[in-house]
Recover the amino acids of this structure.
């Protein structure tokens, strides 16, 4: 069987909002040989004054455009789909996440990795994790949906921080120092692991470093989603430099 000369093991179509500048370089940095990821955007106007009241409406725009982006991606004949946005996959809790997967599978006929279920699989892979803290670039209304999902999956969310980005592109502008300070604020003896959501917030390397100085799992959603895509497609390669998830599991 003839295969793509670069993606001879797997071609992944990565679906993300058009405002997202982080997912593509993050996932490209974690690619084993023979795996390619191909970014296909969801047309997303860059709201400049995101607030707690307007956040959900903006996410609904992203959700509404997802299937069109999937149809576009199917023209490259991918082997699987990777969702490079996280917020949509948390709405409606576990049932909402399952319904999202079912809708995409109906259009594509392919396996799909989504942020919410990928985080659950990753936390279970670490083992012994029940109490977590959540870091997001979102607003409180979205954090409530994230917390609701993790409760459905059997986790207790001890505390959370919503960093409240004022625009979609502004999510990528939070500095490493700001994220590091937030991790320290979230940490405590009552927390088994810290989970970062929001795919336009690049924390794949910071989360890996934080595992060393916090002594517990620190999960970046882009790492979790990419890991889940690899493992679900039979790719067992260890990828160094991005934390225990890709190195040990």
């Amino acid at each position: 069987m003839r295969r793509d000369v670069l993606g001879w093991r797997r071609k992944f179509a990565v679906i993300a909002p058009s405002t997202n500048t982080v997912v593509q370089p993050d996932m490209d940095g974690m690619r084993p040989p023979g795996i390619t990821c191909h970014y296909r955007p969801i047309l997303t106007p860059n709201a400049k004054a995101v607030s707690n009241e307007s956040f959900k409406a903006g996410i609904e725009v992203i959700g509404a455009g997802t299937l069109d982006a999937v149809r576009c991606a199917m023209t490259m004949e991918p082997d699987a789909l990777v969702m490079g946005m996280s917020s949509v996959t948390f709405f409606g809790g576990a049932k909402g996440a399952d319904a999202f997967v079912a809708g995409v599978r109906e259009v594509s006929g392919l396996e799909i990795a989504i942020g919410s279920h990928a985080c659950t699989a990753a936390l279970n892979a670490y083992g012994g994790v029940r109490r977590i803290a959540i870091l997001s670039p979102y607003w409180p209304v979205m954090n409530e949906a994230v917390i609701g999902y993790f409760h459905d999956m059997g986790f207790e969310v001890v505390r959370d921080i919503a960093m409240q980005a004022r625009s979609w592109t502004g999510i990528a502008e939070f500095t490493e120092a700001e994220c590091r300070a937030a991790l320290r604020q979230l940490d405590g003896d009552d927390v088994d692991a810290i989970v970062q959501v929001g795919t336009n917030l690049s924390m794949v390397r910071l989360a890996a470093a934080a595992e060393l100085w916090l002594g517990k799992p620190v999960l970046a959603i882009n790492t979790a989603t990419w890991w889940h895509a690899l493992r679900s497609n039979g790719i067992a390669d260890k990828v160094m430099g991005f934390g225990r998830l890709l190195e040990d599991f």
